[in-house]
From TrEMBL:
Residues 119-228 form the C-type lectin domain. Transmembrane segments: none annotated. It comes from the Eukaryota. This is C-type lectin domain-containing protein. Residues 26-101 form a coiled coil. PROSITE patterns: C_TYPE_LECTIN_2 (PS50041). Keywords: Coiled coil. Pfam families: Lectin_C. Signal peptide: none annotated.
């Protein structure tokens, strides 16, 4: 039988080659699809990471807002604590002052509202300087007198002692100022109540409890005395 050497038609060859080209395209498409899938996975991971970061940022923002609120609450609490402490301190100061005033009253001191001062007569016999030092130990001075009302108040205290007694008051001459009188508490000499003929040449003042008038005596004489102290201490 004779050999068949006739070549296939051109169209037949093309039909045979076409499946090979399609496989290449499929392979390329699959490769492209795999690359797209990888890119998509990367994007999804990045998106997920971004969402986690956003949630973390939101949480941080919420925590910061809570922290600001907590700090404000703490500041308000501190203000209330400070206000309460101030009120307690004021109450304690007032209580201490009241107790001190009560102690003065119990100790025989008398209060004159016009001068806002406390007064007390003492029966010990002392020189002028000793009496002033004793009054200072009681947080006061020998009494200074600045009105007739105050003089009468002091005189009333002096009359609680036996009659015809002299009481040191805080008025004395200052030899360095032309023998001018001055009060030991440093207040101004704006009132006097001298007995007729007084003051003479002596230097330190006394109040006589029989008439409420003033005279002068030597400072080394010993008399009873009256102290005066402020209500505030």
């Amino acid at each position: 039988m004779p050999e068949m050497t006739q070549e296939l038609p051109e169209k037949t060859v093309k039909r045979i080659e076409e499946p090979a080209i399609s496989l290449k395209k499929i392979a390329q498409l699959e490769a492209d699809s795999e690359e797209i899938k990888k890119d998509k996975d990367v994007e999804m991971r990045q998106l997920a990471a971004s969402m986690v970061q956003i949630e973390a940022n939101l949480k941080i923002t919420e925590l910061e807002a809570d922290l600001v609120d907590e700090r404000e609450r703490n500041r308000e609490l501190e203000r209330k604590i400070a206000e309460t402490k101030r009120k307690n301190d004021d109450l304690e100061t007032q209580l201490n002052r009241t107790m001190n005033l009560l102690d003065l009253y119990r100790d025989g001191w008398s209060y004159l509202a016009k001068t806002a001062s406390w007064y007390k007569g003492f029966g010990q016999w002392m020189t002028f300087d000793e009496a002033e030092a004793y009054c200072a130990s009681r947080k006061g001075h020998l009494v200074s007198i600045h009105s007739q009302e105050e003089n009468d108040f002091v005189w009333k205290l002096a009359k609680n002692f036996p009659a015809n007694r002299s009481f040191w008051i805080g008025l004395k001459r200052n030899l360095d100022k032309g023998n001018a009188f001055e009060w030991t508490d440093g207040s101004s000499v704006d009132f006097t109540n001298w007995m007729v003929g007084e003051p003479d040449s002596y230097t330190h003042a006394v109040l006589w409890n029989d008439k409420g008038k003033w005279g002068v005596d030597p400072p080394n004489e010993e008399f009873q005395f009256i102290c005066k102290r402020d209500a505030e201490f």
